[in-house]
Amino acid sequence: MRAQEITFLKLVQGDKQFQVPLYQRTYSWGREQLQRLWEDIGELVDQHLAGEPAAPHFLGSVVLAPGQIQAGGVQRWLVVDGQQRLTTLMLAFTALRDHLKETGDARGVDRVHRQVLVNEFHEGMDHYRLLPTQADRDAYTACVQSRAEAGGGDNIGAAYRFFRGALTQGHEAGDEQWTATVETVLKDLLSIVEITAEPGDNVYRIFESINNTGVGLSQSDLLRNYVFMLLPKRGERIYQELWLPMQQSLGPKNLELLVWLDLVVRGHYKTKQSEIYREQQKRLQPLAGDEDALQREIEQLVERAGRFLRIVEPAREQSPALRAILERLTSWGGQTHYPLALHLLDLLAVGRTTPDDAAQALGYVESYLVRRLICQTPTSGLNRIFMEAPKELETDRPAAEAVRRFLSGRRRRWPSDEELREAVRAKPFYWSGRPPQRSFILRRLEESYRASEPVDFAKASLSVEHVLPQRPAPAWFDLLAEETEPNQTPQELHDLLVHTLGNLTLTGDNAKLSNHPFERKQQILDCSALRMNLEIASAQRWGKAQILERADRLADRAVGLWPGPIGGVKPTGEEASGWAELRAALVAMPSGTWTTYGDLAELIGSHPVPVGTYLGANTSVIGAYRVLTVEGKISTSFRWADGSDRPPPQELLASEGVRFDSLGRAHASQRLSAAELATLLGRDVAQPVAHDPLPEGEDTEAAERFRAQLRQNWPDAYAGIMAALDFWRRQGGHVTYGRHEETSCFPMLDLGTSRRPHLMWPVGIYPVSGTVEVVFQYLKTRSPFDDTGQRRELLNRLNKIDGIDLPEAKLELRPSFPLGVFAEHGDEICEVLDWFVGVAALDLARRV
Fold first, then answer.
1. Position 203 confidence tier, pLDDT thresholds 50, 70, 90
2. pLDDT for residue 517
3. Nearest alpha carbon to residue 467 among 365, 589, 379, 554
């Protein structure tokens, strides 16, 4: 085998084709990997635009083996390893080409298409520079050919849509050179090691060898080995006295995190965790031969390890004020604040700040994170902000003042008091951040009441409750009908209010509260130990006016709890209106789907009328034609911009696969709700499901509650559902139940070990709303259903059953079918469940 480092453009140019063999899995990169790659690309773009020298970013290796060559054909290469990176970059170029088309750069479109994507003088399959596995091929070629179905609901389509959205967002924020610089970076500043096998080599054996090796050395392992190689005389003693105790106290993951943070707080804030060893080696290499200096470096690292432990285990901190804020940031979750927190503890250690000053500085960090979440400020770039902080903080003023001034910079987007108040009233808080962060904010708001006997949140088992229910009974709609605006339905008003902060509280009685009328909820909340619940219970009714009044009261508390930036200025234009978020949602929609003006309004905290006005004036916005009326019809006011040669919206949607009835109404199953749009944007909107190993036996109280709700609402389907759940248990599964507005039911499989559970479930059953959710959103993260082909097979098997119609465009979401299907087709559903268990068990045998 031979290897060479090469740019991506040089790798793919020429009459050649990269074929992904059938024994490889389908394309599987998700939002997390795509986001990480895009952030790396963005750093290179910023450096290039700033005129800074930008070293190529190393992506990894691609292992190739020569394939068969036909006379006059292309040179074929089998992709033994690296298909995920290769496919991702090809999709990035496909999105770039289509972005250039939107901006009117015809030459750029032609350049990218010919240089990267196709062999222009070859036809058929030879036309494509990359040929994915059979299961991914149609989705990929649809993107390359710009077919109507490009950007579907599978992983290929999701990656294409991710890059379309990222390019659109970057283009709007950047200057005229931004897009051209992205093209330069993709072609010339992404480095790949091309490893080629010789003819006759056993390609499958190479693949097995690469993908079945033992655990490699971590970055901290490599650093340790390097350092002690430079300590031939003192190494044994220093290892026993310094390094080993540090390693044991931190553990492998935290040790690796520490050696990365050590670089960041020294000012190397652009260092990635994958580059720790190389950067530390470069820093320490001048000390080779000086064992005194190397010992001092290790001693400093050990001291920093002690400070780092106070961040990850705040109980170690001696200062009450500092311990309290570190505990709050730990409860918030994540590692975003680590670089700045470690820097502040470094300053404290050398006497350049006080515990109270450091605590106040970290309080500004909490405020910054909380305000951004409530206002739904995009999190992109957040890690970089905190990595830059140790180097960028002003040193001639107290630490707290320096941190506040740093975070108040306009580009760092710390929401003002006015913006916070508006977001509390209008934004769907329930879709902000992660569930623990939402609970954290509600807990802090409750604590602000300063009750004489406060709730012990460490012991209380509380969850977020919607006072106005997510699935309200008719009496709730009668109440809302009294407060609707002209041309607004009670359902639309409900959707705009239900997830806002003014309608949310914490309770341990979620199952009791359910979707009862407000009078019954009052009785339950009036017995609560939480002051915010007693306040809700004192209201005479619960509608729009009461929700907005409570939102204003909570906003007052939020402003007092979490101070804002210095000279906070309310954003204007696109930033304030939510139009950027609206456009991002439209780009994220898979082909073959549609949504409504009301769904978009609910997503961004607006109203259907201004959404319709905005899109009516901006029909060139990507995906604008996918927004229909609540009946699923094309709006009578929709018009393409003058001079456009695009076909009518219904014709365009039909070419993507959207079905219309004789009255011109789009099929309801292909509609994306606001919650589904939020999911596509990466927000955590899922209903919580128990992931902890369950005790022996099922929750009998919850089980009986589920059966009672099922008998009451769906008596005809009761026997079929119970039979299916019994069948599931006989297959080795168990059943767990939700504890929220309705007692949902989840047939679970645990194919892991006692130490490492591997839970999966095919559906969630909701007896009040009468739906059965097929949880593709969760399955795509669990083997073997992380394979698009397996999820598609599950969808196809279910769709063969009368009454089930799941759109393929929702392969990364949670589409549903009517619970009533169990009434007549329970046996057929059991056949699908049997197939599901068999596929999962076969995958377990392979993994073991």
1. low
2. 79
3. 554
In whole angstroms, what is the distance from residue 521 CA to residue 538 CA? 11
* For residues 393-407, average pLDDT: 95
750 or 86: which leads in pLDDT:
86
The per-residue DSSP string of 86-125 comes to HHHHHHHHHHHHHHHHHTT-HHHHHHHIIIIIB-TT--GG
Going 768 to 772 to 777 to 778, the CA torsion angle's sign is positive
Give me 161's structure tokens.
């849509």
pLDDT at 694 (0 to 100) = 42
Burial class (CB in 10 A: 0-12, 13-18, 19+), 398: middle
The answer to whether the CB of 771 falls within 8 A of the CB of 816 is yes
More confident call, 270 vs 124:
124
16 forms bridges with which residues in the sheet?
75
Pairing mode of beta strands 57-66, 190-196: parallel
Integer CA distances (angstroms), 79 to 64, 110, 206, 528, 634, in order: 5, 26, 11, 61, 45
First to last CA, the chain: 31
Q: Quick check: pTM over 0.90? A: no
CA distance 83 to 63: 9
The whole-number pLDDT of residue 482 equals: 94
Contacts of 20 (CB under 8 A, 6+ apart): 79, 83, 87, 130, 131, 132, 133, 136
Cite the beta strand spans of 416-572 per DSSP E.
Answer: 463-466, 504-507
Other CB atoms within 10 Å distance of the CB of residue 826: 18
Cβ distance 445 to 554 under 8 Å?
A: yes
**Collapsed DSSP state (helix, strand, coil) of residue 353:** coil
Nearest to residue 344, comparing CAs of 304, 372, 384? Answer: 304
For residue 144, give the nearest of 133, 135, 131 by alpha carbon.
131
pLDDT higher than threshold 70 for residue 397 = yes
| Whole-number Å distance between alpha carbons of 751 and 836 | 13
- Phi and psi for 298 in degrees, rounded to 5? -70, -40
Backbone φ and ψ for 559, nearest 5 degrees, come out as: -60, -40
Strand 745-750 relative to strand 734-737: parallel, antiparallel, unpaired?
antiparallel
Question: If pLDDT is split at 50, 70 and 90, which confidence band does 574 have?
Answer: low
pLDDT of residue 572: 55
> Residue 719 to residues 421, 698, 726, 727: CA-CA distances in angstroms?
50, 19, 11, 12
Stretch 590-616: mean pLDDT: 93
Contact assessment for residue 42 and residue 170, using Cβ atoms and an 8 Å cutoff: yes
The answer to whether 360 and 326 are in contact (CB under 8 A) is no
Q: What interhelical angle do 178-188 and 155-173 show, nearest 10?
A: 130
Over pLDDT 90: what percentage of the chain?
Answer: 63
